[in-house]
Design brief:
By secondary structure, the protein is mainly alpha-helical. The chain has seven helices and no strands. It is 53% helix and 0% strand. The termini are far apart.
């Protein structure tokens, strides 16, 4: 199980540039929108990088926009749905150079800002 999680995290964070470019071209129009203006912004404040699953984040447009702002390659990866049961903090152990403590702190801060608006 741990090996499968490691392989998944590696695939999510080291995807070929061509695949990421193709996914970016098909991103929804809301991809560049202000996260606070997206549906679910008020609910996103309850999200925490150490507690909320990637699946719950992806199901909320405002929360997805926050993560996309800080970790665009992660969100754009076509295999992201394979990590729906993991938290961003759990993914960090497989890619600490990309999913840094600072990025997780910044994401949590942006989640909190969404709820305040």
């Amino acid at each position: 199980m741990r090996l499968a999680s490691l392989a998944l995290a590696a695939a999510l964070l080291v995807a070929p540039a061509a695949v990421l470019a193709q996914v970016a071209q098909t991103a929804p129009a809301s991809a560049g929108a202000d996260p606070a203006s997206l549906p679910g912004a008020a609910q996103a404040a309850k999200f925490k990088t150490s507690e909320t699953t990637v699946g719950d984040i992806l199901d909320n447009p405002a929360a997805t926009a926050v993560v996309k702002k800080h970790l665009p390659d992660l969100v754009a990866n076509e295999q992201i749905n394979m990590a729906r049961g993991m938290t961003l903090k759990a993914i960090q152990q497989y890619s600490a150079d990309t999913v840094t403590d600072q990025k997780l702190t910044d994401i949590d801060a942006d989640f909190a800002k969404l709820g305040a608006k």
